[in-house]
Design a protein that fits this description.
Elements lengths: L2 E6 L5 H10 L3 E7 L7 H4 L5 E5 L2 E6 L2 H4 L16 H4 E4 L5 H18 L4 E5 L5 H14 L2 E7 L12 E5 L9
Helix pairs in contact: 5-6
Length: 178
């Protein structure tokens, strides 16, 4: 069964790369903030927009996420075009507005459930603002899709997930059934 992965994008690209490599979806949809300082640059930015930091020091610059995980290196039509920016990038104007985030994510999931009913839809809420992540969790639970989080094996950095992380399925069996 083909898999479609929705990921929220924030300041750190590493957990998203880990999630994509672990879950190996046929298609990835990125939910990112728009604007000059938005996280969209990690998805569609030219050159080397992804930065590995140690504190405030940039220790390495890498290409955008789709390039790193080779989503765009397929001939057109191969593997159902794993990433097309005009189709697979959802831009959020205000990543701290729960209503905007939830509505855009829920609409995307609903559309996928209608247009690709045989595909398995997955969501990883690791990246992005707390509000964007919360919206992803709410929309995924409301839609009944599998939910994942990418966390460090031992969480020593409380600011962000660092290298050495693993992607895990989240138990959503608690869902309200009323």
């Amino acid at each position: 069964m083909p898999k479609i992965l929705l990921v929220t994008v924030g300041g750190s690209f590493q957990p998203i790369v880990t999630s994509i490599r672990t879950l190996q979806p046929e298609r990835v949809i990125f939910i990112a903030s728009d604007g000059d300082k938005g996280s969209k640059s990690q998805v569609i930015g030219e050159g080397t927009p992804c930065e590995v930091r140690r504190g405030t020091e940039i220790i390495e610059r890498l290409p955008n996420i789709p390039t790193q995980v080779e989503l765009g290196d397929m001939p057109s039509g191969t593997l159902r075009d794993r990433f097309q920016p005009n189709r697979d990038l959802i831009l959020i104007q205000n990543p701290d507005d729960l209503s905007e985030c939830y509505l855009k994510i829920h609409q995307c999931i609903s559309q996928l459930q209608q247009t690709a009913p045989d595909d398995k839809i997955l969501a990883d809420y690791t990246g992005g603002t707390k509000t964007l992540s919360a919206a992803m969790v709410l929309a995924a639970v409301d839609s009944g899709i599998s939910l994942y989080v990418t966390i460090a094996a031992s969480r020593e950095n409380l600011v962000k997930v660092e290298r050495g992380e693993a992607t895990r399925l989240v138990d959503t069996s608690f869902r309200f059934q009323g």
